[in-house]
Amino acid sequence: MAGNHKHSDPLPETVLRVKSLESLLIEKGLVEAAALDALIDRYENKVGPKNGAKVVARAWVDEEFKERLLKDGSAAIAEFGFSGAQGEELIAVENTDKIHNVVVCTLCSCYPWPVLGLPPVWYKSAPYRSRVVREPRKVLEEFGTKLPAGTEVRVWDSTAETRYLVVPKRPEGTEGLSEDELTQLVSRDSMIGVSEALGPTATKGG
Amino acid sequence: MDGVHDMGGMHGMGPVVAEENEPVFHGDWEKRMFAMNNAISALGVRNIDESRYARERMNPAKYLGSSYYEIWLDGLIRILSEKDLISEEELLGAVAPRPVSTPKPALKAEDVDPVMSKGGSYTADTGKAASFRVGDRVRARNIHPSDHTRLPRYTRGHEGIVIADYGIHVFPDASALGKSAPQHLYNVKFASTELWGPDGTEGDYVYIDLWDDYLEALPHAT
User: Choosing from A23, A108, A130, A178, which is the catalytic residue?
Assistant: First the structure.
């Protein structure tokens, strides 16, 4: 089955070691199982790219909000109640007809959690981390994104505690869509910068 | 350290393969690993740079052959062992767990959302005076610290332009060693062709956050 071959199963000893570590940390009073459950629930169910999509859709329909977002990303996403770990210093970068931004962390896996949740495996993988700073156009093509030669590509390598969020271009033909409908066009990948936002037919019933 | 984690620009890693409809976690062990690493942060026993430095010291062949949560597992055990909070014998069940004390108590379930929504702080009120200003031409220094650094190898010796001064920040190279040397953090713009020569693309750029100590001044263009 496609999609099943890339993430190899962990070794049984890895799973066992994680269990041993958890048991030991709990026994030592260093972690509490209920807190682990709450952390998992937060990032599995509450914090994810839907947050970022709301921010981007707002920026598309509200020019003043977009200005605030580009000026101070953390303050602007706080208007939605989004804040905290791995997004303390959020910087939004805007795609235009002339500029395309894409984000990476070549040294580890830095990613703007409050707006995008946890990164996909490919973002943390050696192929993406090694290649996108050197040949971003090629990598983007593998995601189906072909950029015109005249578009300036800006790769943002997240080496510090600043976190970058790409504001993709608003797709054409979306003038009649509501802010809520627009959120459905803002994919996670478009906010990392490897893709463009989806076309208007991607909305429910569109 | 010039380790395998510093992989910007390396060849031979293969194509980027995205998994369709990828779940947030692949299996329970990833969930627990993710959560443990974050819950431990609440104890105040190690900072983010110590945490990263611990992961970077994973056996390099294993690092390249591991998924990211396997790297977290290795790094968390390493740093907690170095901080004398756990031991391999305890992990193997060969000895009874020894009681330990920490600066702050274990994270409670009801505190998860407030703590994670608050996040950390990586800025400082005072520190080394800024050596550079926005618009300055700079060169990433050709240095090879054997400990933790956030100066990627692919930038070293290359020229760029300071496009932003983010203010005084914790300096990771010091912080990873339990020291403190707060200084200005900048965003520096490098031309793709400056970094990669003829293999780069004219008109494309890489923007990288770099600390004051990573940079040296270049004369202004006339």
Answer: A108
